Target: EAL domain-containing protein
Amino acid sequence: AKDGGRNQVCISSPAVSEEMLTPLIVETMLRNALRNKDLEIYYQPKIQAKSMQVVGAEALCRWRHSEFGEIPPHRFIPVAESSDLILPIDEYVLRAVCEQGARWLQDGYRVRMSVNVSSRQFGQPGFPELVRSILRDTKMDPSLLELEITERTAMHDVDRAVHTLTELRNLGVRIAIDDFGIGYSSLSYLMRFPVHTLKIDRSFTAGIQSAVNQNPVIGAIISLAKSLNLNVVAEGVETVQQFDFLRDNKCDEIQGYLFGEPVPPTSFQLTAFESTPQ
Ligand code: C2E
Ligand code: CA
Ligand code: CA
Ligand code: CA
Model:
């Protein structure tokens, strides 16, 4: 039976619910959420810096819980990643994102759909085959699907990563290295990875205070990416100053609260921005 008083405590006091959400409880709740389809997918735009066109959308998972409200990914993705539960979650998200991308394409919008792939999912021998079957089921254009793999995942077992990335690339999908710059990729490894995009970690973007930046690292990452012919995306862009700096330094795409927080697909702006939001 439901105890109304106890539930109230959970909702109204973050401190209490924080303590209650032990990994085991989160995992159990998450299993139910997946079954009940309480996981929603929000999309955040990627803007081409020079044209202000919306060229992509990153899918970010949200868990809507009847008692705890909206639980952000950093509270449940790590728990899911520590068990096999991340596998059906990633599969669910991938399928839903491909369905959405195919729908937008039917409406005449070519949006590159980016999906985060957990280390565990990426390491599954059957992962490329799973991607292939989802593309087939959803009739999604493979060139509009981009898989975001963190630098850490790629570096975990380089030879194996190169093999898996090659298989994925052969399906015609795109690959991005996420959270780039905080890990340990050396240039020689980076050159071995058959990827299309580098996503500069938010911590670097946050360091940009003005259009004339003090920190040379971000400029160095952009020129490195350009020399390897990679598409460069900066994440976590929140200010016009950051946008100006990145555009002037030839960063291709911009993602961040400046242009929009992650939103449900029905609220997603598909048309170009006229100017930077003030
Ligand atoms: P991420 O892939 O690095 O995603 C970027 C995170 O930064 C997102 O947090 C996004 O909402 C947030 N963000 C975007 N723009 C800004 C900004 O301008 N300022 C700030 N401060 N933050 C910004 P979110 O949605 O909480 O996701 C956190 C992480 O959870 C993601 O990091 C990703 O690693 C993971 N994640 C989210 N959805 C999924 C999923 O469907 N599958 C898997 N495997 N992981 C996911
Ligand atoms: Ca990401
Ligand atoms: Ca990231
Ligand atoms: Ca991150």
